[in-house]
Amino acid sequence: MKGVIVCVVCPVSCPVEVEWDEHDVLDTDHNQCKLALPYVKSEIFDPRRTVTSSVVVEGGVMPLASVKTDRPIPKALVMQAMSVVLGIRVAAPVRIGDVVARDLLGTGANLVATRDVEAAP
User: Alpha-carbon distance 22 to 1, whole Å?
Assistant: First the structure.
C-alpha cells in the first residue's frame, strides 16, 4: 500500500510519502527528520489519540472541569471512551491531576483533571 501521512511530531509537519505492507513500513520519502518513521508506523499499525473533554462537577463554583487521558488510547476506542466520560460526575473540589477515572476502557490510561474547580461556598 502507498499513501501520504502528515507527521505532526514537530512543527514542520512533513507530508511523508509512505509504502507499507501488512507487517511493516517498506519505504518513506520527504520526511525531514528521524522522528517521522516511528510516528508513521504508529499511525498505520496502532493509531492512538489523547482524549480531551469535560466532566460535570457537583457542588463546584463552575459546572465543568476539563479532563484528558494521561496517555493516548487506541483511536478505535475514542468514541466509546467519550460515552464513558459523558456519564462521569465528580464532587468539588477538583484539583489538576486528580484521577477522575482509572484504566479507561482497560487501556491503562487514566482520565485526569486539567483544571482546578473549587467547592461552592
Answer: 9
Q: Enumerate the domain spans of the chain.
A: 2-46, 52-113
Mark residue 103 as left, alpha or beta (left: phi above 0; alpha: psi -120 to 50; beta: remaining): left
Instruction: Tell me if 42 sits within 8 A of 48, measured CB to CB.
Output: yes
The domain 52-113: what is its CATH number? 3.10.530.10
Nearest to 77 by CA among 98, 112, 46, 40: 46
What pLDDT is attached to residue 50? 98
Is 53 in a helix, a strand, or coil? strand
In degrees, to the nearest 5, what angle opens at C-alpha 35 toward C-alphas 1 and 51? 85
Q: CA–CA separation, 113 vs 52, rounded Å?
A: 10
pTM for the predicted model, two decimal places: 0.88
